[in-house]
Amino acid sequence: MSQPVPPVPSPRRNPVAAFFVGLWDVMNFTRRLILNLLFFGLLFLFVVVFLFAVGSGGVKPLQERTTLVLAPEGSLVEQYSTDPATRALARALGDKRAEEVQLRDLLRALKAAKDDRRIERVLLDVDDLQPSGFASLRELARALAELRAAGKQIVAFSQGAGQAQYLLAAQADEVYLDPMGGLLLEGLGRYRQYYRQGLQEKLGVDVHLFRVGEYKSAAEPYILDAASKEAKEADLYWMGDIWQRYLDDIAKARKLEPGQIAAGIDTLPDGVAAAGGDLAKFALQQKLVDGLKTREEVEALLAERGVADEDSEYGFRSVDLAGYLLQLDAHPQLGKRKQVAVVVAAGEISGGEQPAGKVGGESTSELLREARDDDNVKAVVLRVDSPGGEVFASEQIRREVVALKQAGKPVVVSMGDLAASGGYWISMNADRIYADASTISGSIGIFGLVPNITRGLDKIGVHTDGVGTTRFAGAFDVSRPLDPDVGRVIQSVIDKGYADFTGKVASARGKSVEEIDAVGRGRVWSGAQAKERGLVDELGGLDAAIADAAARAKLGTPDDYRVRYIEHRVTPLEQFVGGFAGSRVGAAWLKDSDFARALLAKAMPETEAQLRFVENALQDRDGTPVKALAYCFCGL
Q1: Which residues belong to the active site?
Q2: Which CATH architecture has domain 61-183+289-331+572-602?
Q3: From residue 174, how far is each of 161, 290, 458, 479, 518 by CA, in Å?
Q4: 343 membership: H or E segment, kind and range
Q5: CB distance 282 to 272 below 8 Å
Q6: What is the pLDDT of residues 310-362, one digit of tens each?
Q7: Fold entry, domain 339-568+608-631
Q8: Which residues contact 489 (CB under 8 A, 6 or more apart)?
Q9: Given this chain, do its domains 61-183+289-331+572-602 and 339-568+608-631 carry the same CATH topology?
Q10: Which residue, among 353, 184, 362, has the nearest Cα to 267 in the 3D structure?
């Protein structure tokens, strides 16, 4: 029988070690306590938000005699360039730099309000709307005119709209301008900076331009000190067409003569002087507005005409754009299985995966493939608003359009403000191409831009030298002089790219290469001019393109099919954060949260200028030293 082993006494702990061990235990306990408090605090906050949402009973019913207040702020876009969480955070923190308004949302609200008996009238304030072009504005103007024709009164107010925003305000029954405001129509202008002297003479940077087409002026600022004769000729031609159409649209809405408006611009100095320098009074004299009233006076007027409501920020029964869209979304048409899918290609065309607001050779192709593989999708509308970009990425997307047609699904292109160069490349093979008369299109051409900094380095005493196994090893290095034979290689690539472009357009449009070359060579056209030259089939907006696609797929009336936008899917986390930030409790918490502000500042995307696109294209060569670009610096 074994004897029990007596316990071994634990060694006596050193007092110093015991102190530090105890201190560590206290710190560890405190750490766990703080984390637990933070966890349960956030959990409690989320539960409060959830209960608030449930207790609110969802969207409150819209009352009769409601005024729809349309006061959009930010850039007018085809597609949001940020995710829902970022947008909700920006709104909660009052960051207006990130504000964007989707064209489709405004059109949907106006279309619904036309037949909505609960909407009595519309208050329109577009001072803070930043449009990107006249095609989208004219589409909105048509929707406003249709709403007005349906018997819904539209009252517009402005504290100082620009001429682009005024195109929308002019559609109203009554246009009021603040007495201290101003409104000037000045015409369209397109001016750019030219860098040849600064680059070549000051910095010693030589820029080599390779292109096909004397009108392909995208990169002229890097090799000239002023616009070429061809660039001025082409720009004035399409801009003059768009401007005359603008005058016609304003004159029709205001019951004036286009010549009368043009005369007011030509005699602007005398007219303003006669009005005592009062721009608001001058606008009234020109009959561009119906009266001079403050915002408070306009709101009081609408309160008299509508239903006064002390709880409303406007003083009358109203619903804003976001609230009205919630009303429309409360009854989605999910039961319709047959679909017309809309894929948006907005922004510069680059290779690979690109976020919303840009066009990626891989990512946009993936969206088109999704439409092809979905049996519920019977037709596709490709909405294009792009200045173009990389040729290969454009070709990837064009191939997917062809694949859709081969799968028996009609494809109709709807051009927005801009569908030029690479933007036209991805459009050309559609069954039908729609554009607004003021769309900027064409620019069928290719260019390559190669900077060389050898002379600049020489100025600071830096020289490049080394060896290579062949005469062309390292020949594309921008710190070495450009060999003329290398220039021949690049020009051959550009020539081939232009031949591909014109050949594919000729095949897609049923024309000869010579006919396409005659309207190509980099020249830009308005939508109306493009139609006259066979580059566009019909003049019309997105609704017309959708109706055409549905008719080609034999889907019946609009009540028989559903329109669905195919876009990048939002992650569950983005949905949750967006929902939380969009709630009243979440917005109130984020508004006072320094942490949230720092998080937003880091998450917000930076605005990329056109030079950034060129820089990225030069850096990202995908294993090839030469990359052809089909890009158009032709926006207004």
Answers
A1: 216, 421
A2: Alpha-Beta Complex (3.90)
A3: 15, 6, 65, 62, 47
A4: strand 339-346
A5: yes
A6: 889 899 999 999 999 999 988 665 556 799 999 999 999 999 999 888 899 99
A7: 2-enoyl-CoA Hydratase; Chain A, domain 1 (3.90.226)
A8: 626
A9: yes
A10: 184
